[in-house]
Amino acid sequence: MISALLRGLCDDAALFPPGNAPLPAALTAHARYRDSEFAALVGPLIFPVPRLAELADRSPGSLTVVFTAPAGPGTVAPALERAAVLDGLIVTGLEIAVPARESVVEFFATLDSIAGRTAGLEVYVEVPRDERRAAVLERLAGSPYAAKFRTGGIVAAAYPDERELAMAVRSAVAAGVPFKATAGLHHAVRNTDPTTGFEQHGFLNLLLATHLALAGADTGALEAVLANRNGAGVAAELAALSEAEEKAVRGAFRSFGTCSISDPLTELVDLNLLPAALRPVSESSAS
To answer: What percent of the chain has pLDDT over 90?
Structure first.
């Protein structure tokens, strides 16, 4: 029912802006998603390390999470130790930010020093949008770590333009570095938010750009795909991919974080990339 292109595509980032779901509501909704007909679309719950005490207080039961470490790799080992004593909690991955005042050399020295603790986990390094970007991507190439690109936020400046994102995707694909995306991918296709006026990337555009990057397309071609607002056209190109091509795309672009699962699900149904049987869908009635 759900193609290889879409399986596990949507990480559940309900706890993050702009959704900011209360923890009890996020846990309840995630459990419904994992037990739904569209469960194959949904990845793990993305959970911030600074809020781990709240999770411990709630005894969440069986739960698979990916931890985010916004303060850097120094916070990872204590978080994993704390998680280890929570019954039913399974940590499958880490998303680790490069602190603002930390050099690339210092960051990777600290990250490598905890390699024994992170073995077996998918580790993503959030690539900074500053002069350190190229050096971080260079260090990721050939390493056990993947990349995480920020594609939006709560201010306009948090959104990379088409060229910046195209260059990031092309660089990662050329270097053989898998990546995920976070924030700002609120819709399937490129759009202008009617409330904020922010120019928002579409997650289907990003999937198609990844496919073209794997085929050797240049940065200009990727920019054009990222700017394409023709949802039916973008969806049709993705629907035409072979299963081998779908798997190759997802081998490169692993997933993206979304604070709403029902929004991408609904839009994928509307674009005929998921069966109509999966509607109606809503945050309150998904099952």
So the answer is: 90
Q: Which of 63, 75, 79, 76 is nearest to 26 (CA)?
A: 63
Please report the DSSP string for 175-226 in residue order.
HT--EEEES---BSS-EE-TTT--EE-BHHHHHHHHHHHHTT--HHHHHHHH
Check whether 150 has a pLDDT greater than 50: yes
Contact 239, 273 (CB under 8 A): yes
Total domains present in the chain: 1
In a domain, 285, yes or no: no
The burial of 285, by beta-carbon neighbours within 10 Å (0-12 exposed, 13-18 middle, 19 or more buried), is given as: exposed
Separate counts of helices (H) and strands (E) for the chain: 12, 10
Report yes or no: 30 and 22 within 8 Å, Cβ to Cβ.
no
Residue 15 lies in a domain: yes
What CATH number is associated with residue 42? 3.20.20
Q: Using one digit for the tens of pLDDT, what is the confidence trace for 100-138? A: 989 999 999 999 999 999 999 999 999 999 999 999 999
CB atoms within 10 A of CB 85: 8
Report how far residue 136's alpha carbon sits from residue 123's, in angstroms, rounded to the nearest whole number: 14
Rounded average pLDDT over 68-77: 96
Cα separation, 39 vs 42, whole angstroms: 5
Dihedral-angle region of residue 115 (phi above 0 means left; psi in -120 to 50 means alpha; beta otherwise) = alpha
Domain region containing 135: 10-278
Q: Is the pLDDT of residue 280 over 60?
A: no
Residue 1 covered by a domain: no
Residue 76 lies in a domain: yes
